[in-house]
Automatic annotation (TrEMBL):
This is Flowering locus T. It comes from Brachypodium distachyon (Purple false brome). The gene is LOC100846539. The lineage of its organism: Eukaryota, Viridiplantae, Streptophyta, Embryophyta, Tracheophyta. It holds the Pfam family PBP.
Amino acid sequence: MASRDPLIVGGIVGDIVDYFDASARLRVSYNNREITNGSELRPSQVANQPTVQIAGLSRSLYTLVMMDPDSPTPSNPSQREYLHWLVTDIPEGRDVNRGTEVVAYESPRPTAGIHRLAFVVFRQTARQAIYAPGWRANFNTRDFAECYSLGAPVAAGYFNCQREGTCGGRRYR
């Protein structure tokens, strides 16, 4: 049921991408802990680049975009979307390290509020040159996909992150 889709409930579909039918499986793990949509991680848990695997059509290549749609704060996301990572040419079934890192991983360091960190995956029709934007703030996933003719996403996921030691709101387990 679409209304229970965690990507819709979490606002990933809507704020970042339009509704899509997932045709690949995305696995993101930090320190051997696989994230699930809406899971909560502290900045110290996401300081290092995660392990990412994409399972989909054999012999396909994928592009991974990681961004924060809540930058600098969820109540005033004036830098929406903040680009944290961009990797292209990821071979199906292989780790993201087999791809081409276009924008290096930058660990999330939210200063206020609970931030959503989203991973969006696109299937490439062929190996292509994709260039790093000149800045990380105000990245636009929809415009990026259109510019490089990537089409609709094939997979996505997200986790929540807030400043260490924050009280109130959701608690970390």
